[in-house]
Amino acid sequence: MPYPFALIARPAGDWKDIFDNQAIDMSISHNMFIRGLNAIYAQAEGIKEEQVKPFTFFCVSFLGMLHHHHHIEETLLFPFFETKLGLHTMDHNVEQHHAFMAGLDDLEAYLKGVQSGTETYNGTTIIQKLDSFADTLVEHLRDEIPTLESSKMRAAFTEKDLKDLEAAVGSRIMKEVSLVTTLPLGLICHDKSTAPYFPPLPSAIMWVVKHGLYRLHSDAWAFAPCDYNGVVKPGLGNDAPVPTA
């Protein structure tokens, strides 16, 4: 499963149906991570000296978002799902996290070393470190979607259960992440044509992100897979459309 990694098919259903949307929303998030990985692969070996600082900032910010996503899953989402789906239902997902986390941590440490000056930037090193875990990560991103299939959600949970979960996730994200980086990444790793309503932010906040937060690190976001309008940039491994389920 070498680069470029294919995007995940969007599950069937209506995103406005909260039971259908658990898998749909996760597929959108996971495709953001796949696009980001592809963009890093596509550009790492061609980075010029003057681009090292903004490119490594993009990479570290992206990996931080990926880390936090899996932290939220293990500490909030998975325990919640297991209350009704059964103890250990999500164990395979957690085991997959552990299988790629060491490689992800190693790449992140290297990039932070480049930022601090203790490491010298080398695009080939980045590719080698990505190769150590990217296949396992992408396999996990695919495998997790069926665990949230609509009929499973509908059989186990009420609409209120899932609304409360979504509110809890939103609250945790707002408290725990850097809004300066995570909110712009939510725009520039998502293909807006596949889900125009995503990310589900009020229009006023979207305006602030586009015209305020984005500009703080626009040099770094230039390496993202999409522009801030959610238009996919060609040539970064993400040219194929999202498959249909």
Offer a quick outline of the entry:
This protein is 64% helix and 0% strand. With 245 residues, the protein is mainly α.
Give a description of the structure.
There is one protein chain. With 245 residues, this protein is mainly alpha-helical. The chain has a domain at 18-178. The protein has helices spanning 18-43, 52-85, 91-116, 123-131, 134-143, 150-156, 159-176, 179-188, 203-216, 218-221. The longest helix is centred in the first third of the chain and has 34 residues, at 52-85. The model has no long low-confidence stretch (mean pLDDT 95).
List keywords for this structure.
245 residues; mainly alpha; Hemerythrin-like; Hemerythrin-like domain-containing protein; Dimeric_xanthone_biosynth
- Total beta strands: 0
**Share of helix, binned:** 55-70%
Segments where pLDDT lies below 50 for 5+ residues?
none
Strand content: under 5%
Structural class call reads mainly alpha
Q: Mean of residue pLDDT?
A: 95
End-to-end gap:
19 Å
Gyration radius from CA atoms, angstroms: 18 Å
Largest sheet: none
Shape: globular
> What is the tally of helical segments?
10
The helix/strand series, from N terminus to C terminus, equals HHHHHHHHHH
